[in-house]
Structures are given as C-alpha cells and as structure tokens.
C-alpha cells in the first residue's frame, strides 16, 4: 500500500499493481476499494491504481466539519493528485459515486479516457424530490445508525423492493462494517442531491458510459444523460446486470473497457502486451 497527499493535505492510501498503461479505479458509495478486485484480475496488462476514498477507511482529520459542498471537490482533488503522480495520462474508471468523481476530475485533470459505470447523478425530476440525506440524518439523530444505512440500501440498491432486506444484508460483504460510515454517506448523498449535470460536460477525453438493464431506472436514465452530455462518448448497457455490474460481471466489464481503449488508441499510451 502506498500513500499520496492531496493539495490540501489529505493522505490517501492506494494499491498499485501491474505494469502497463495506468488505470485509476474509483470505488463508489458503500463499496470498499476491494470492490474492484474481480475486475483488476482481468486487466493484468495495465497498471491498476486503486485508492481508498477519504473518510472510507482513511484518516480525515477534519471529517466532522466537511460539508456536502466540499465532499465532491475533495475527492476530485485527490484523484487529480493521483493523475499527476503517474508517468502517463491515466484512464479514470469509476463506479457510482466514483464514476461521478471520475467525470468531474476529467474536466480539469489530464486523462486519456474515462469509464463511468452508472454515475451517481440524479435526473432533474428525481433530484427535486430527493430527501434520502434528510431521512438518513433524522435516523442518525435518533440513534438509529443501522436503520439509516438500510434506507440508503433500500433506495439506491433496491428501489424496486427486496423480499428480505435483512437476509440480503447478511450476505452483503460491506455489512455491518459500513454502518460506521453513516455520516460520510449522508454527506455523499447531499453532494449527489445538489449536483446538476450540465448540458455539455467539459471533458475532452473519450468517455465510455456503462449501465445494466437490472439497475435502478433513475441511474440508467442518468447514465444515458451523461453519454449525451459528453462530447466523445460511447454507451454500453449490459443485459441482466444490476448497479453492481463490476462485481457481478467483471470479465464482461473488463472486456468492454479493453475494447473501448483499443478503439480509442490515444487512451492507451503504451502498447499492450
């Protein structure tokens, strides 16, 4: 494990493996950095760089004072620090909130390509009524931490309902450790609720937007909106795959990323083995 420090002094540990074109993989909301491990195993001819998000298993001295408006900016800041630390222009790959971070980082950082799986962006009509952060905060103030995180799981991962949520959670690897991150998830959700997708993203790099037919409808809608807002974009939807696509179908995801990078040769700065 290595560590990089952002401009504002945040220490971000990251795992670096392999030898080849650099891929920076950004994990999402409640997923740990290890979420990318199944995908990484299919990308062994790349250098994969997997950081741990600030506040998610990392030390953040002023964590309690970070507001929603700062959350996304700080994550973009550490991604840009990682970009500056690699020798070649990296490919930014993100899932959910990590996908939103990758897109925002690419508006300023020099990246050769961006891959975004169902970015955590709310369609305008959905965002106007979004109150998940408020409902989670009310539960936290009432001392109901587990219930607060359950509300997140229900709305984001299972918006169409799940027969037995407790059974599902028992089999979900981040549970119950993720309950410790409840405050961070509230801040993250406030940042998502405040974010508005511009009509045109200021991203010059080629963008691959991914989605799954079994994911939440609002995230599938937003994925298509990101595709339409990016000047140089390709959209791929995986049949029978949910919001957890990189974990459910890592070989298919990796193959699609590889195909996209080959089609956009400038996204691969050095020859693949």
Automatic annotation (TrEMBL):
Transmembrane segments: none
Protein name: Hydrolase
Gene source species: Natronolimnohabitans innermongolicus JCM 12255
Domain of life of the native organism: Archaea
Signal peptide bounds: none
SUPFAM superfamilies: alpha/beta-Hydrolases (SSF53474)
Swiss-Prot/TrEMBL keywords: Hydrolase
Domain (AB hydrolase-1): residue spans on this chain: 23-255
UniProt KW Hydrolase keyword: yes
One Gene Ontology MF term: hydrolase activity
């Amino acid at each position: 494990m290595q560590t990089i420090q952002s401009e504002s002094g945040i220490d971000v540990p990251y795992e670096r493996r392999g030898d080849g074109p650099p891929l920076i993989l950004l994990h999402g909301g409640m997923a740990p950095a290890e979420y990318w491990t199944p995908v990484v195993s299919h990308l062994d001819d790349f250098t994969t760089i997997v950081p741990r998000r600030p506040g998610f298993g990392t030390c953040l001295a002023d964590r309690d004072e970070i507001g929603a408006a700062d959350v996304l900016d700080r994550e973009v800041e550490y991604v840009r620090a990682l970009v500056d630390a690699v020798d070649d222009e990296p490919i930014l790959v993100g899932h959910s909130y990590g996908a939103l971070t990758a897109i925002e980082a690419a508006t300023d950082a020099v990246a050769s390509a961006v891959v975004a799986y169902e970015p955590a962006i709310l369609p305008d009509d959905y965002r106007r009524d979004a109150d998940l952060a408020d409902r989670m905060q009310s539960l936290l103030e009432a001392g109901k931490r587990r219930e607060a995180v359950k509300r997140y799981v229900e709305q984001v991962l299972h918006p169409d309902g799940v027969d037995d949520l407790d059974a599902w959670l028992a089999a979900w690897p981040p549970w119950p450790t993720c309950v410790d991150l409840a405050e961070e998830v509230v801040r993250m959700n406030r940042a998502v609720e405040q974010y508005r997708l511009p009509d045109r993203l200021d991203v010059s790099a080629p963008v691959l937007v991914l989605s799954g037919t079994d994911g939440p409808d609002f995230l599938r809608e937003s994925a298509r909106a990101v595709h339409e807002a990016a000047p140089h974009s390709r959209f791929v939807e995986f049949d029978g795959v949910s919001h957890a696509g990189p974990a459910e179908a890592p070989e298919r995801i990796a193959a699609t990323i590889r195909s996209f990078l080959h089609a956009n040769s400038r996204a691969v700065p050095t020859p693949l083995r």
